[in-house]
Amino acid sequence: MNLHIIEHPLVQHKLTLLRKKETSTMKFRELLEEIAMLMGYEVTRDLPLAYEQIETPLQTMESATIAGKKVVVVPILRAGLGLVDGLLKLIPSARVGHIGLYRDEETCKPVFYYYKMPEHKERLVILTDPMLATGGSACDAITRLKKDGFSNIRLMCLVASPEGVKAVRDNHPDVDIYTAALDQGLNDKNYILPGLGDAGDRIFGTK
């Protein structure tokens, strides 16, 4: 199974605060940064290690370091930006890519209006989007990353719907999904229920 629900008590507590409609924009951003850091521990749990010889104040020892090229954090614009700062506090050396896309109303095909990624295709990509609703944007973003040569991709979201999880599994079974909650489903406007509203609007204070 490629779905990982992060049930750590601190993650669940902060998610409850994020869900509350009375939570202010400022508080929402703060909580989002905190929960991103906590989730980041789980997303990066199995990063490969190498060992180097170092000097402590008392003696020489072999000590662990992250092996190979570091992580690249890739938000799906715009809401995905809300998870970036927390991950960068956890992994300050991470590179940051950006994916901006929307779906053409007539053709229903994805239109990429911005795509910028670092080099080194062997990097672990953490693709961020707070809401995995229909899964359309996530699937399109993953397809674009694979086309560009990235193969080690993990999707990190706050809240997921069963429909969104199924879409990613069907189209990209090799991509692990990390979420704080699997909610009940979508309403007729494709909003996640019970969800937390429009994450982008709540992050940026827009309607």
Give a quick set of tags describing it:
207 residues, alpha/beta, seven-stranded parallel sheet, two-stranded antiparallel sheet, 6 helices, 29% strand
Short note summarizing the structure:
The chain is an alpha/beta fold and 207 residues long.
Explain what this protein looks like in three dimensions.
Helix 1 runs antiparallel to helix 2 and helix 2 packs across helix 3. Strand 12 and strand 13 form a beta hairpin. The mean pLDDT is 92. The strands form four sheets. Strands 1, 4, 5, 8, 9, 10 and 11 form a seven-stranded parallel beta sheet that branches. The protein is built from six helices and 13 strands. By secondary structure, it is an alpha/beta fold. 31% of the residues lie in helices and 29% in strands.
Strand content: 25-35%
| N-to-C SSE string, H for helix and E for strand | EHHEEEHEEEEEHEHEEEH
Tell me the total number of β-strands: 13
Structural class: alpha/beta
Shape type = globular
Q: In angstroms, what is the radius of gyration?
A: 18 Å
Q: How confident is the prediction overall: mean pLDDT? A: 92
Helix content: 25-40%
Q: Biggest sheet: strands, sense, closure? A: 7 strands, parallel
Number of helices: 6
Can you tell me the residue ranges where pLDDT is under 50 for at least 5 consecutive residues? none
End-to-end separation in angstroms reads: 36 Å
